[in-house]
Amino acid sequence: MSYVEIRELTKRFDTTTVFENINLDVDEGKICVLVGPSGCGKTTLLRAVAGLTQPDSGMIRLDQRDVTKVEAKNRGVGMVFQHYALFPNMTVEQNLAFGLEQKKLPRPEIRKKVDGVIELMGLGPRAKARPAALSGGQKQRVALARALVLEPKLLLLDEPLSALDAQIRKRLRDELKRLQHDVGFTAIFVTHDQEEALMLGDQVAIMQAGRFVQIGAPAEIYNRPANLAVANFVGDFNIFDPGTVKRLFAAVTETSWAVRPEAIDIAPADRKPVINGTAVETEVTVTAVQILGAMVRHYTRAQDVTIKVDLLNKPDQRLFQIGEKARISIAKNAIAEMNE
């Protein structure tokens, strides 16, 4: 049974509808990532689950309990924001203990819980430091620890890594995934970063204009987008409309094709065509080559259509030259067919 159940939830501000009659289920011990462009309703939905925003209609259930009208402080929910909101005059230990003290827990129990989360988060060397002496990554680690020490039923994270530089961000999201595995908490994580969503989420819910356009596992979202809007948002697909499919690949279809650049094979133009029916292919001209870290991107041109092809950047990888003729092939099982 779902740990978080959102049913027919609607929220409006004056005459603006943020979302209407949306539904979402999150299983216990899983991370659900809400991803979508700015203004699509992600943060408002998170605040509604937290109890910080009251929906106009619908229901929110946590662990089979209807909390739609329950005050935020009584929901058992922890929240981590983009901005750390640490008490500047308190040490790391004191920041972590504050929420437990408000619950009036015994001093020995507070000490035990704080020590435990400090060890879990690797904050021991900074336990006596105040926020001003911490780096951005350390502050966000403290903010996460402050939420975890309260042992929330549900952890809500509103773009908590977006203010950090790329390397620290990657390291912290790796740590967050490890913590979720070790501790087993349930979480809803909001981001606009597609890579972050696919890496962190057990479930990814793509939100656009106040509605979910696709909910599924990361691999499903990545390889089988529900429609062209999702394909254009979650990644770098090559999109071929039915007319282009017919012109380039001599195939007849009533739907558009979406194909990942890394799913396309490229070979010298004199390679023999595929004749077993498991792939389609066409001749191209290489127009540009870019090194993208682990991948090498080839921009190719077939008639009037640009096609992106990615190859692993291996030491012995053959790089095609600008102006070189080549042949690309696409396995039919790598083609996602979709409507608008």
Key structural traits:
340 residues, alpha+beta, Rossmann fold, OB fold (Dihydrolipoamide Acetyltransferase, E2P), six-stranded mixed beta sheet, five-stranded antiparallel beta sheet, 34% strand
Total number of beta strands: 18
Low-confidence stretches: none
What is the count of DSSP helices, taking H or I runs of 4+ residues? 9
CATH topology of the largest domain: Rossmann fold
Overall pLDDT metric: 91
- What fraction strand? 25-35%
Would you list the SSEs in sequence order as H and E?
A: EEEHEEEHHHEHEHEEHHEHEEEEEEE
Strand order, sheet with most strands? 6-7-8-3-9-10
Entry summary:
With 340 residues, the chain is of the alpha+beta class.
Structure overview:
- The mean pLDDT is about 90.
- The protein is of the alpha+beta class.
- The strands form four sheets. A six-stranded mixed β-sheet has the order 6-7-8-3-9-10, with helices on both faces.
- It has nine helices and 18 strands.
- Helix 2 (about 90-100) packs across helix 3 and helix 2 (about 90-100) runs parallel beside helix 4 (about 135-150).
- Helices cover about 25% and strands about 35% of the residues.
- The radius of gyration is 24 Å and the shape is elongated.
- It folds into two domains: about 1-235, 3-Layer(aba) Sandwich (Rossmann fold), CATH 3.40.50; about 240-340, Beta Barrel (OB fold (Dihydrolipoamide Acetyltransferase, E2P)).
- Strand 14 and strand 15 form a beta hairpin.
